[in-house]
User: What shape does this take?
Amino acid sequence: MNRLLLNAIFPGEPVAWERAALRGLYMHKPKKTRQAQATLVRGLKCVAPELKPDAHSRFGVQCVFSTRSFRKDGDNCLKLLLDAFNHKIWEDDNQIDEIQVTMKRGVLAPQTHFICYTIEREKP
Assistant: This one.
């Protein structure tokens, strides 16, 4: 039996992840990506202030990205969101086994609807 962990709506235009750039010896995450991830983390703290990262569970996520854009990539919106929640919900997004993404385009009120649940392991 799966267990619902979070059902939240984050208002505002979803932001697509942008490729990190090599600057000298270090990879540099673009400012727009960093700011969008910080906004998601602040929103997460508001809706689930007691939530702690879980390093042992397997997760499933459902995301509905409602955007004004007709060209935005859903996979890049998803990557930004999953990376933002590393060390917040899960230790690493490699713990996610089920993903469902829906893009709603041309909307008047952009937002991200995020559902996260833990997946129960089958007992042998």
